[in-house]
From TrEMBL:
It comes from Pendulispora albinea. SUPFAM superfamilies: Winged helix' DNA-binding domain. This is Transcriptional regulator.
Length: 228
């Protein structure tokens, strides 16, 4: 469990239904009672919102058998349509452009395009993180950047490392057909944070979110060994 509550940079949504959707997006499947407690709204308001969202095809419910004596547990989660309610960075057009580059110009041209994007992203992030006092501040600034870009990013500390979580991927469709985009983002994180960064959950592989474990000092140690 996290040592402390996550630092949030999530969009403000209106209405109980939108708040329920956002809760399911950022925290995964949950019971109606837990959603009510987390959002501070009545159980009846949550129930009505879930029923309406289910009718719209945005959420689905799974019934789990009781553990011992008691009633079955119902857990609500987003459907594919529910996930699509969140921004996806002109997914169809992006995929078409990537396919066109690969088909017309070849894989080498696509790789160069990804490298150029990585260089631009790294320069932008390095400028934003310049002057950060320590790894904690670098992570906080990176999370703020990613949240503004639509990744619903947050982070918290776990023992001697950090966990950076992105509850949404606005380029998910493009990344699915071109996983070089995901690799370049991982390279960028390692460079600008000056730390070891390992992806431990990946939306493209079917996870609910992308998550990165960040360990201080490891990247610098590898560079020193390589030079030696």
């Amino acid at each position: 469990m996290p040592a402390r509550a996550p630092k949030k940079n999530l969009p403000a949504l209106r209405g109980a239904g939108e708040r329920v959707l956002l809760r399911l997006k950022t925290r995964g499947a949950a019971r109606a009672a837990d959603i009510s407690l987390a959002l501070g709204i009545s159980a009846e308001a949550v129930r009505q919102s879930l029923v309406k969202l289910e009718e719209e095809g945005l959420v689905t419910v799974t019934t789990e058998p009781p553990q011992g004596v008691g009633r079955p547990t119902q857990r609500w989660s987003l459907t594919a349509a529910g996930h699509e309610r969140f921004p996806n960075a002109h997914a169809e057009l992006t995929v078409q452009l990537l396919d066109s580059v690969r088909t017309v110009l070849g894989k080498g041209a696509l790789d160069r395009l990804i490298d150029a994007r990585e260089s631009q992203m790294r320069a932008t992030y390095e400028q934003a993180l310049a002057g950060a006092a320590d790894l904690n501040e670098r992570v906080a600034r990176l999370v703020e950047l990613r949240a503004r870009e639509g990744y619903m990013a947050e982070y918290w500390r776990e023992d001697d490392s950090f966990l950076l979580v992105e509850n949404h991927c606005p380029i998910c469709v493009a990344a699915t057909v071109c996983q070089g985009l995901c690799r370049s983002e991982l390279h960028t994180f390692r460079a600008v944070l000056e730390a070891d960064v390992q992806r431990v959950e990946h939306i493209v592989d079917g996870a609910r979110r992308c998550a990165y474990r960040i360990t201080p000092g490891a990247a610098r140690s590898r560079k020193i060994r390589k030079k030696g």
